[in-house]
């Protein structure tokens, strides 16, 4: 009875799985995301912890047996500043935040971003901890003076439940960890001008680390003191584990708020001369890594087009079906995030565009052009990450059959969809089971899935469309300004 808890940006979900990997109990609670002036995006740590308590209590009450352990995962990046008790000293800054846009632009111009990338394989972006720490160090240094730890969502919740100050190696990968040694690279920290804030970085937990609920955490969740708790990996690698990614070259597409594209590798080396973008994430297996390209495009763009056109998300599939591949000549670049793009390139000034519009263009063409452009962005990411094997997919976007077919056609390969949508929680539970020495059958957990096949008649057209996308992107990058 291991309860997996996935603390997402807008939703916290708890799930318990049976021996076959099927969900037997689940609960969810919404989180509040505050979009403020100046590109600031923040969350309240107390509210987030409250959502964890809500879902865990609800699931525990529905189980036939007592809870045996708690497995945490959740959103990565951002900056969650706390004191020694785990209390927030500043509202949690989301990975969506854009206040450090100018910091990142300066680092790109003067070579800091390239220097950090060459040392750690982490392409920095405005919502990463390095840029946010630098921004606060310049504009609100008193906040950092009050903090004991500058961490992330999962370790912030862990501290409130167990009293432990630590961080999972996957979160620590961004942006200061050398993936080969799994230690912080002090030269990368110095390059960002943050050597005097080095004490705020918690040391990564050891592989298979297990923590215990303290009295405060037990009272919050209604569970026994001393209950085992694991924390991490964060949601990107947890989803890869939960979906079934196990062999080098295999990848996973997460069509969520972000479009996260990841490929498993057993080689810690990376192209140090390449464009400084993406992430090289350590996993619970000390000999495996995930080359991640988490683009800022994703279902947030679908929400935007629905709002713009006055339609509901349930209308997306019928509209996609009523516009032919190629969207009757309408083309798009999908960069709608206020903080620009972070993979497979980094540009805080990246912005969306539509072309090929005419008086004959309909809503279906606009919707299809946007969905196709996001699929092209996925291909761009996977090309950079080195996808060569089996491809899995998860996230809210996979609930659209028509969009899934577009992804398969653009990527030119079948896509495996796990039967249970809670793959992040599933990955956290599998990680906890391994840490606790609990036996489980990975093949049995992965066998319940379906496959979306490529439609051969669409491949050539999308190959030309991808070339057009690349050309439009190259032209646009020379025009973007903050």
From TrEMBL:
The UniProt record lists the keyword DNA repair: no
Residue ranges constituting the Carbohydrate kinase FGGY C-terminal domain according to the UniProt record: 289-435
Annotated Gene3D superfamilies: 3.30.420.40
Single Gene Ontology MF annotation: kinase activity
Keywords assigned by UniProt, alphabetized: Carbohydrate metabolism, Kinase, Transferase, Xylose metabolism
Domain Carbohydrate kinase FGGY N-terminal: 1-242
Pfam families with a match to the protein in the record: FGGY_C, FGGY_N
Secretion signal, residue range per the UniProt entry: none
Keyword flag Transmembrane helix: no
Family listed: Belongs to the FGGY kinase family.
Protein name per the record: FGGY-family carbohydrate kinase
Organism: Amycolatopsis ultiminotia
């Amino acid at each position: 009875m291991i309860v997996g808890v996935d603390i997402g940006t807008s939703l916290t979900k708890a799930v318990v799985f049976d021996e076959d990997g099927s969900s037997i109990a689940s609960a969810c609670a919404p989180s509040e995301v505050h979009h403020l002036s100046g590109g600031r995006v923040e969350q309240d740590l107390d509210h987030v912890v409250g959502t964890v308590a809500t879902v865990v209590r609800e699931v525990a009450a529905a189980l036939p047996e007592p809870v045996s352990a708690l497995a945490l995962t959740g959103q990565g990046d951002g900056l969650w500043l706390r004191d020694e008790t785990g209390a927030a000293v500043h509202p949690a800054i989301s990975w969506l935040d854009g206040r450090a846009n100018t910091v990142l632009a300066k680092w790109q111009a003067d070579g800091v971003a390239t220097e950090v990338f060459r040392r750690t394989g982490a392409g920095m972006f405005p919502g990463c901890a390095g840029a946010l720490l630098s921004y606060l160090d310049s504009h609100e240094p008193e906040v950092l003076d009050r903090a004991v730890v500058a961490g992330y969502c999962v370790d912030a919740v862990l501290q409130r439940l167990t009293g432990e100050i630590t961080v999972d190696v996957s979160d620590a990968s961004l942006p200061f960890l050398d993936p080969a040694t799994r230690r912080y690279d002090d030269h990368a920290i110095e390059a960002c001008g943050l050597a005097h804030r080095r004490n705020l970085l918690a040391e990564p937990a050891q592989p298979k680390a297990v923590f215990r609920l303290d009295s405060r955490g037990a009272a919050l969740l209604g569970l026994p003191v001393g209950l085992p708790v694991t924390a991490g990996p964060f949601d990107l690698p947890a989803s890869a584990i939960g979906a079934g990614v196990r062999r080098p070259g295999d990848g996973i597409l997460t069509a969520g708020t972000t479009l996260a594209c990841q490929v498993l590798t057993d080689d810690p080396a990376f192209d140090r001369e390449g464009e400084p973008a993406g992430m090289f994430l350590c996993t619970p297996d000390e000999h495996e890594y995930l080359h991640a390209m988490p683009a800022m495009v994703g279902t947030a763009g679908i929400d935007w087009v629905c709002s713009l056109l006055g339609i509901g998300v349930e209308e997306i599939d019928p509209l996609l079906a009523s516009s032919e591949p190629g969207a009757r000549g309408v083309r798009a670049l999908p960069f709608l995030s206020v903080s620009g793009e972070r993979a497979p390139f980094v540009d805080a000034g990246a912005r969306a565009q539509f072309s090929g519009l005419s008086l004959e263009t309909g809503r279906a063409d606009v919707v299809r052009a946007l969905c196709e452009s996001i699929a092209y962005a996925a291909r761009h990411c996977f090309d950079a990450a080195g996808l060569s094997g089996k491809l899995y997919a998860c996230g809210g976007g996979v609930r659209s059959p028509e969009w899934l077919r577009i992804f398969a056609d653009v990527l030119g390969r079948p896509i495996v969809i796990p039967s249970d949508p809670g793959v992040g929680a599933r990955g956290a539970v599998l990680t906890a089971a391994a840490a606790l020495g609990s036996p489980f059958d990975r093949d049995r957990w992965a066998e319940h899935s379906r496959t979306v096949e490529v439609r051969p008649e669409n491949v050539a057209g999308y190959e030309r469309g991808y070339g057009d996308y690349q050309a439009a992107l190259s032209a646009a990058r020379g025009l973007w300004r903050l």
